[in-house]
């Protein structure tokens, strides 16, 4: 017999971590929205605006956008 289990986790980030999380999500949302609206990949200027965010997050957002459309 197969039993499924679920786990719940809650994190309590520090103020610095909270700021970084907000920056990463904000930049990913910016890249997706801009790309969706214009139908193009973000320009160099837009990429520089999100320089603080991890490039992996931005690239994953573009991959998701490519899958959707």
Question: What report would you give on this structure?
Answer:
With 69 residues, this protein is mostly helical. The chain contains 3 helices and no strands. The model has no long low-confidence stretch (mean pLDDT 76).
Quick recap:
The protein has 69 residues and is mainly alpha-helical. The chain has 3 helices and no strands.
Helix count, DSSP H or I runs of 4 or more residues: 3
Averaged pLDDT, please?
Answer: 76
| N-to-C order of helices and strands | HHH
How would you sum up the major sheet?
A: none
Number of E-state strands: 0
Q: What low-confidence regions span 5 or more consecutive residues with pLDDT below 50?
A: none
List keywords for this structure.
69 residues; mainly alpha; 3 helices; flat
Write the topology of this structure.
Blueprint: H1 15-38, H2 44-49, H3 55-68
């Amino acid at each position: 017999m197969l039993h499924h289990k679920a786990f719940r986790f809650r994190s309590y980030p520090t103020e610095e971590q909270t700021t970084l999380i907000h920056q990463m999500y904000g930049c990913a949302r910016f890249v997706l929205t801009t790309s969706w609206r214009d139908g193009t990949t973000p320009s160099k200027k837009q990429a520089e605006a999100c320089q603080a965010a991890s490039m992996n997050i931005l690239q994953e957002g573009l991959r998701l956008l490519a899958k959707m459309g």
